[in-house]
Amino acid sequence: MTEKTAAPAPAAGKGLQNVVVGQTKLSLVNGTEGKLIYAGYNIEDLAEHATFEEVIYLLWHGKLPTQSQLEELRKNLFAEMSLSPEILALMRQFPKKATPMAVLRTTVSALALWDADADNNSPEQNRRKATLLTAKTPTIVAAWERIRTDKEPLQPRADLSLAANFLYMLKGTEPQKQEVAVMDAYLVLLSEHGMNASTFSARVTTSTLSDMYSAITTAIGTLKGAAHGGANEEAMRMFFEIGSADNVEQWFKDNVKTGKKRVMGMGHRVYKALDPRAAVLNSKSKAMAEATNNMKWYELAAKLEKTARADEDFIKKNLYANVDYYSAIALYTIGIPMDQFTPLFAIARVPGWCAHIFEQWADNRLIRPDVEYVGPMGLKWIPIEQRGN
Ligand SMILES: CC(C)(COP(=O)(O)OP(=O)(O)OC[C@H]1O[C@@H](n2cnc3c(N)ncnc32)[C@H](O)[C@@H]1OP(=O)(O)O)[C@@H](O)C(=O)NCCC(=O)NCCS
């Protein structure tokens, strides 16, 4: 007998498309017009004028900081940036071939083991943990780059911003002004984005009354996928596969038009217009490519975008460049290893996830949706010896 049950309620669209799951004061993603606003401020203004630290304050407090509030935040972040000898010893045990995202996920989870208040979810403790996680994530990513290339991890410097400190600890050289400015803009642009998949998973974990380390670890695992944060690395690999701007049209015809591949870094669940972050990163990556006298990858990316945007399917399906497309070029030009692109996305997004965790705690209810059962009903128990092969 294979009768089916009736659906308990109208099923949500596949992938929960267009389902509104709550309210937020953090950001507005307007996919039709291609606009992004953080707590009232246009993303273009913030990318041009704000530092990452100012945006962290904005996301955590709902307003821009005064000079003294910003100094206080900087001081608190710097106080948490170093990694303990135990964490560094743990990271040295990891196989050198481990991927940076897996290392980040495991190390962030391990931080909880040395925090006596890991399971204390009071607002004060959660603020402290948000500062700690935001400060230590760049140090973990940089330390892993040093460890896997047989170099000593570096201590953060009190005179540098978060963006500059990350570049310094990664490369071991004094970061250049333009690199730091691009890094700051990247971190600002990627720090928050409504109810994306990783933010949703952080909120689901929080809603079960679990702790902040668990919620951030969950979010990192979700960000890792190629349909989400992993797309920046995949975009750069695609540019390499194409190899030269001259090959773009043929590659598009052979791979995208035949349905074999997608253009990584294009298309978006919400944006049906140009992702405003892609527009900013386009100009930043172009300026960076010009300054370093290496236009090859920028020109290839620009030509592929033009080719795709002239294609009737891309026009019909409203497929535009998303944030990962030009960020791949910007990060590559700064000298970030390709498999560190997604960890860098995580560095940017940790404060955004934390802000959502604060909102979830402020008005929590267990997130537990329903699902429509479409399997068989009324089957009779069959003893194992009568079940055949
Ligand atoms: C982001 C993404 C996962 C959104 O997915 P989604 O909203 O579930 O959309 P779908 O995967 O259902 O795609 C809708 C249609 O557009 C097509 N499409 C979507 N993105 C495409 C891309 N980058 N290249 C080519 N075709 C694409 C799909 O093939 C599908 O076509 P169909 O309706 O004829 O089957 C998707 O656009 C994608 O895979 N992009 C590449 C990866 C990426 O850049 N991710 C980072 C997002 S910030």
What does it look like?
This protein has helices at 43-49, 52-61, 67-80, 85-93, 100-111, 123-148, 162-171, 177-190, 197-207, 212-223, 231-242, 248-256, 276-291, 296-309, 312-316, 323-334, 341-362, and strands spanning 27-30, 35-38, 41-42. The protein is mostly helical and 389 residues long. It has two domains: 25-226 and 339-362, Citrate Synthase, domain 1, CATH 1.10.580.10; 231-334, Orthogonal Bundle (Cytochrome p450-Terp, domain 2), CATH 1.10.230. Strands 1-2-3 form a three-stranded antiparallel beta sheet. β2 and β3 form a beta hairpin. α8 (177-190) runs antiparallel to α16 (323-334). The two termini are 21 Å apart. It binds coenzyme A. Coenzyme A binds at residues 15, 227, 231, 256, 262-269, 317, 319, 322-324.
List keywords for this structure.
389 residues, mainly alpha, Citrate Synthase, domain 1, Cytochrome p450-Terp, domain 2, 2 domains, three-stranded antiparallel beta sheet, 17 helices, 55% helix, binds coenzyme A
Question: What's the total number of strands?
Answer: 3
What is the count of distinct domains? 2
Strand order of the largest sheet: 1-2-3
Share of β-strand residues: under 5%
Task: Tell me the name of the CATH class of the largest domain.
Answer: Mainly Alpha
Quickly give the CATH architecture of the largest domain.
Orthogonal Bundle
Low-confidence stretches: none
Order of helices and strands: EEEHHHHHHHHHHHHHHHHH
Rg, Å, rounded: 23 Å
CATH superfamily of the largest domain: Citrate Synthase, domain 1
Count of individual helical segments:
17
Integer average pLDDT: 95
